[in-house]
Amino acid sequence: MSTTRNYKVYSAKYLVRPKEGSPFTVPANPPKFHTEIYNNGILSAFLTRNSYDEAVDEGEKYVRSHNEHSKRDGE
What we know:
It is a single chain. The chain has one helix at about 50-75; strands at about 5-10, 15, 25, 35-40, 40-50. The protein is an alpha+beta fold. Strands 1-4-5 form a three-stranded antiparallel beta sheet, with helices on one face. Strands 2-3 form a two-stranded antiparallel sheet. The longest helix has 22 residues, at about 50-75.
């Protein structure tokens, strides 16, 4: 059975809920980045990193480690 692994990176935001008016979002300050890691379309990990490059690196490591295991296991 084949396993699909992928990830998504995006900028962190805060949800502000004022006493009056509609809720809104503001970017995190200092900037942070989230990495959502998926296994067969199901969210399996949620990470927060200090830079975009760190967040992408975490996602790439996850996908790369799966590909290496697949090659060894003969998938």
